[in-house]
């Protein structure tokens, strides 16, 4: 279990599947996270969560430290173990957006990826229309590395998928320039 200022990142337990299903059935979450059809997921979808956890290098349920309330999840899977490339995914319940939890969780997980897991790079994909997430990722040091044009149909229009990444030395430099504190 890991704690940040306001969050706890803890292991997945079976009862978390209900919270994840509720989150993945929020239209706002699906619009920003899924390139599949925007349809309700059935309870059978919960079986996939166990698979995600088992395949992840690092997977955490994010809860609010003061109440223990489920807020979201994050995971790092190995894109290439030889090249120490971690692929990040992070999702929050819609009601927890705009509160700085994403920045707090990302700050912790990036530091953990580079210092404890010895990754060289962390990458992610984001839809071009998810401007809030893109701004956050840029603040955390991610840079755009590529774009898959008109790859996903969302709300009646095509959107690009943007590939972003941050390198270990870039993260270390950001931490150092912040006088030893994390960005």
From TrEMBL:
Belongs to the acetyltransferase family. RimJ subfamily. PROSITE patterns: GNAT. Keywords: Acyltransferase, Transferase. The keyword Transferase applies. It comes from Somion occarium. Coiled coil: none annotated. Signal peptide: none annotated. InterPro entries: Acyl_CoA_acyltransferase, GNAT_dom, N-acetyltransferase. The keyword Acyltransferase applies. The lineage of its organism: Eukaryota, Fungi, Dikarya, Basidiomycota, Agaricomycotina. This is N-acetyltransferase domain-containing protein. Transmembrane segments: none annotated. Residues 7-169 form the N-acetyltransferase domain.
């Amino acid at each position: 279990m890991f704690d940040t200022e306001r969050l706890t990142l803890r292991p997945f337990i079976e009862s978390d599947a209900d919270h994840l299903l509720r989150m993945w059935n929020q239209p706002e979450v699906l619009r920003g996270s899924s390139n599949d059809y925007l349809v309700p997921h059935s309870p059978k979808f919960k079986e996939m969560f166990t698979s995600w956890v088992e395949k992840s290098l690092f997977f955490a349920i994010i809860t609010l430290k003061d109440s223990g309330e489920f807020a979201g999840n994050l995971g790092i899977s190995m894109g290439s173990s030889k090249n120490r490339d971690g692929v990040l995914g992070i999702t929050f319940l819609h009601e927890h957006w705009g509160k700085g939890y994403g920045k707090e969780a990302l700050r912790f997980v990036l530091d953990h990826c580079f210092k404890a897991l010895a990754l060289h790079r962390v990458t992610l994909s984001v839809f071009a229309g998810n401007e809030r997430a893109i701004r956050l990722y840029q603040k955390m040091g991610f840079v755009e590395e590529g774009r898959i044009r008109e790859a996903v149909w969302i709300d009646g229009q095509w959107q690009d998928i943007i590939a972003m990444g941050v390198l270990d030395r870039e993260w270390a430099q950001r931490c150092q320039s912040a006088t030893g504190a994390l960005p």
